[in-house]
Design a protein that fits this description.
- The complex is a heterodimer.
- In chain A, 55% of the residues lie in helices and 18% in strands.
- The two termini of chain A are 30 Å apart.
- Chain A has 15 helices and 15 strands.
- Chain A has two domains: 186 residues, no CATH class; 208 residues, no CATH class.
- The longest helix of chain A has 44 residues.
- By secondary structure, chain B is α/β, with parallel strands linked by helices.
- Chain B has one domain: Rossmann fold, CATH 3.40.50.300.
- Helix content of chain B is 37%, strand content 28%.
- In chain B, the strands form two sheets. Chain B has a six-stranded mixed beta sheet with strand order 6-7-8-3-9-10, sandwiched between helices. A four-stranded antiparallel beta sheet of chain B has the order 2-1-4-5, with helices on one face.
- The two termini of chain B are 20 Å apart.
- In chain B, 48% of the residues are buried.
- Classes of the chains: A alpha+beta, B alpha/beta.
- Chains A and B meet through helix 1, helix 12 and helix 15 of A and helix 2 and helix 3 of B.
């Protein structure tokens, strides 16, 4: 029977074209349904890629723990020396290393030195971070000029530093950065390298920040410890802050569960820090949470699409039933000329499917158009995938076949004599 | 030689609610190859009902129908479709052309359901259209033709697949007498070529021009000129 497919298709197109407006109106439901499927899939694909890219900046194998000044703890700070003590301690890190040694590749620490930076009589507003070489590796911070802080600097406690690329711009430093010297709390540091401005999103910058300052000067952790210790005392009120580590980034070994390690770390920290003076961010968890939120959106769109498709399908049944009635005599003539019931059913089914496939094509165009006009305006990065187009066409054909079945069967069951006599 | 069509005590009753209406009440008649027969009778006498059974569009309630020696009285719907497709050419009073198909496409219909290839279908339909004298107009749509021309197209459609019999139910009923005569002339020409033709008619001139005449009345054959000889 497939041999007549082309003829029947051509015939379908002709019949539909003869009633172009009616056909188009019938297709609205399918068009909206397919359009929203495409739009939804494209937006979801785009959003997923964005989310993944953002979270990947933090490293999916990383766990980031920041020390946090506990919210007004007047009751516990009744210490005579008024030194605020909070955050991660060496003890935490040691316990973490001991508990998760097989699962953790390394733990890199950052200690913020709360000292002022001066250069040639100019105050530079940047945070000073004591770090080791792994810190750069973990956050994939690249080197723009010179070299980054290395392990030798740490063991030698050298007074050298790296600065953010933007720091040079912001403070108008045009001379060769490698010759610049910075005074940090009375100690002179040689700039040995410039750190590439990381492409972190605002959200990620917030997660990684240890203070409100935007710019960073990196010095070797051991140098920091030697010169400044862990405690900073602000005169004249004799107020102080003592934080042993402001940030710890735990790199979990490939193939080990990040979430398991995170739970183990959380258990340790919860015991050691009843004041909860730390924040733990698990990028992988972040990814999962945001993907879940994404799914809610997708489900809503799928519902809309589903309803439109059903409405569209009912429209198609309606129009095809009308068409079957209008063409009763044609059915009788075809039967008299030797058409079997299945030939009649097949003919109407092809016509319905052609109609709904046309709706699918228009819907796909509308959807793609929506993706390229609406999505950028509301700030969604959408990607149209070929799979979504194929799916959309598949869905529309399926709707055509499903909802075309009833009119087609009805047409095929007509008695030829009655059909020929139909006025 | 076996007759082309043979009805044996054929009855056809319609159930109308509780009442049974007998449209045919025991019709026995045979048609030989190459015969051209007129069926006459008053309205409601069962002529169309008999034509439908002969054309395998309908089945007898009781009795047998042999077409080409094969008993087709109790065949399934699909089998009847196949027989109509191979052996029957039908001409209706209402022309019954499909409006959105061209003349050629209308004529090709039986070949389409036979599975004939496109090129061959076109060639055969062109021959049939030539035969009824509409060779130039095969691209036209039925709406562009006059009544007589439409009926010619219907005749072309009824013969394009070389059926065993051509059945015409009042083919001139919707035409003026001059055009009707032309249509009958076409049927005569087909008969001269050896076709078996059966036509229902109200027109006595037409009926008397044919070799055999069957008169029906109240679902029975009242008179058959081939028997009265
Ligand atoms: N589908 C049907 N249902 C009920 N009665 C029918 C049907 N078809 C025909 N009849 C009845 O059968 C009788 C014969 O009809 P028909 O064969 O059409 O007569 P004719 O063609 O000779 O005018 C009529 O009384 C008609 O009313
Ligand atoms: Mg009649």
């Amino acid at each position: 029977m497939l041999y007549g497919l082309f003829e029947l298709l051509r015939l379908s197109v002709r019949c539909l074209a003869a009633n172009a407006l009616r056909s188009l109106l019938t297709l609205l439901g399918i068009i909206i349904g397919v359009g929203s499927v495409i739009f939804m899939m494209s937006v979801t694909a785009g959003a997923s890629r964005e989310i993944l890219r953002e979270v990947e900046q933090l490293g999916l194998q990383n766990i980031i723990i920041n020390s946090r000044e506990p919210a007004s703890d007047e009751t516990t700070t009744e210490q005579p020396n008024r030194i605020k003590q909070y955050g991660l301690t060496d003890k935490d890190i040691e316990q973490a290393r001991a508990t998760c040694s097989e699962r953790v590749e390394f733990i890199t620490l950052a200690h913020e030195v709360r000292e002022e930076i001066w250069r040639a009589g100019q105050r530079i507003d940047a945070r000073v971070l004591g770090v080791d070489a792994q810190y750069f590796e973990t956050l994939r911070l690249g080197c723009a000029r010179g070299r980054l802080v290395c392990d030798l600097d740490n063991t030698g406690q050298k007074p050298i530093c790296n600065v953010d690329e933007r720091l040079l711009d912001d403070y108008g430093i045009v001379q060769d950065p490698i010759t610049v010297q910075l005074d940090i709390g009375g100690v002179v540091f040689d700039v040995v390298g410039v750190v590439e401005q990381p492409p972190f999103t605002t959200h990620n910058r917030k997660i990684l920040a240890t203070s409100a300052k935007h710019l960073t000067v990196y010095i070797p952790a051991q140098t920091a410890l030697q010169h400044y210790g862990t405690m900073t005392v602000f005169l004249p009120e004799v107020q102080g802050v003592q934080v042993e580590a402001d940030q710890a980034i735990v790199r979990v070994k490939d193939g080990c569960s990040v979430l398991t390690v995170a739970r183990a770390l959380d258990r340790i920290l919860r015991v050691n820090h009843p004041r909860h003076d730390y924040d733990m961010v698990v990028p992988l968890e972040l990814l999962q949470q945001r993907e879940k939120a994404q799914r809610v959106f997708s489900i809503t769109m799928v519902l809309i699409a589903g309803i439109s498709l059903v409405v569209g399908g009912i429209g198609i049944i309606n129009i095809m039933l009308a068409s079957v009635t209008e063409r009763t005599r044609e059915i009788g003539v075809r039967r008299a000329c030797g058409a079997k019931r299945k030939h009649i059913a097949y003919q109407f089914l092809i016509e319905t499917t052609t109609l709904s496939a046309l709706g699918g094509v228009i819907g796909a165009l509308v959807g793609v158009g929506g993706v390229y006009t609406v999505a950028p305006r509301i700030g969604w990065a959408a990607i149209v995938s070929p799979q979504s187009l194929i799916l959309a066409l598949g869905i529309s054909c399926a709707v055509g076949i499903m909802f075309g079945m009833y009119p087609a069967i009805k047409a095929s069951r007509m008695d030829p004599i009655e059909a020929l006599r139909f006025e | 030689m076996a007759p082309v069509m043979e009805l044996k005590a054929v009855e056809r009753t319609y159930r109308m609610g509780k009442v049974n209406l007998s449209a045919l009440r025991g019709v026995s008649v045979t048609f030989e190859e190459g015969e051209m027969t007129a069926v006459v009778g008053s309205s409601g006498s069962g002529k169309s009902t008999m034509m439908h059974i002969l054309g395998c569009l309908d089945r007898p309630t009781r009795g047998e129908y042999f077409l080409d020696g094969e008993n087709v009285a109790h065949l399934e719907d699909d089998a009847l479709s196949e027989i109509r497709n191979r052996k029957i050419g039908f001409i209706f009073q209402m022309f019954n052309l499909i409006p959105h198909l061209s003349i050629a496409e209308n004529v090709e219909l039986p070949l389409f359901y036979m599975g004939t290839r496109r090129r061959r279908r076109h060639d055969l339909s062109m021959q049939a259209i030539e035969l009824v004298g509409l060779g130039q107009r095969w691209r036209h749509s039925p709406a562009e033709l006059s009544g007589g021309e439409r009926q010619r197209v219907a005749i072309a459609r009824a013969i394009v697949h070389e059926p065993r019999v051509v059945l015409a139910d009042e083919p001139t009923g919707n035409l003026d007498s001059k055009t009707g005569a032309e249509i009958i002339a076409v049927l005569h020409r087909l008969h001269d070529q050896g076709r078996t033709i059966l036509t229902v008619t109200h027109d006595n001139n037409i009926a008397s021009s044919l070799t055999r005449r069957i008169v029906m009345r109240d679902g029975l054959v009242e008179n058959d000129s081939s028997e009265s000889e």
